[in-house]
Write a structure and sequence with these properties.
Radius of gyration: 22 Å
Structural class: mainly alpha
Order of helices and strands: HHHEEH
Strand content: 5-15%
Largest sheet: 2 strands, antiparallel
Shape: elongated
Number of helices: 4
Strand order of the largest sheet: 1-2
Distance between the termini: 67 Å
Number of strands: 2
CATH topology of the domain at 22-67 and 95-127: Arc Repressor Mutant, subunit A
CATH class of the domain at 22-67 and 95-127: Mainly Alpha
């Protein structure tokens, strides 16, 4: 007489919530920023639901997920520094926020944004078409 072993999943549908660390999420999100690559293709390649990748991209956009530095050559933007009297004046007691201007787009970051945060925004701008 032959016996067969059957394993039955315990606890419902057999699914579990996975908590992926930022070290896993960041390279996946960075791969979606490559021109010509779709989020769905990257998600499929990594075995991750596309809606998760879209949510992680929002986290990266908000600065809650720091993306890795690009592997290719890094390009630098020019920085123009003028005399102190040339710039616009802020009201006394106003809090200054970092601002990145690329063409007609001005991005104002949160007060006290870290260098990593600013660098991630610049990388995202460089990767966008």
């Amino acid at each position: 007489m032959e016996t067969t072993l059957e394993v039955l999943p315990v606890g419902g549908r057999g699914r579990r919530n996975r908590k992926r660390p930022d070290e896993v999420k960041a390279p996946i999100v960075a791969a979606t920023l490559t021109p010509g690559i779709t989020v769905h293709a990257v998600a499929r390649r990594h075995g991750v639901p596309a809606n998760h990748v879209f949510a992680w991209r929002i986290l990266a956009r908000k600065g809650r997920l720091v993306l890795p530095a690009p592997e290719g050559p890094v390009e630098f933007a020019s920085l123009m520094i003028g005399p102190v009297g040339d710039g616009p004046r802020c009201a006394v007691g106003a809090v200054e926020r970092p601002e990145i201007i690329a063409g007609a787009v001005a991005i104002r970051l949160e007060t006290g944004a870290s260098a990593e945060r600013i660098a991630s925004v610049v990388r995202a701008l460089a990767a966008s078409p």
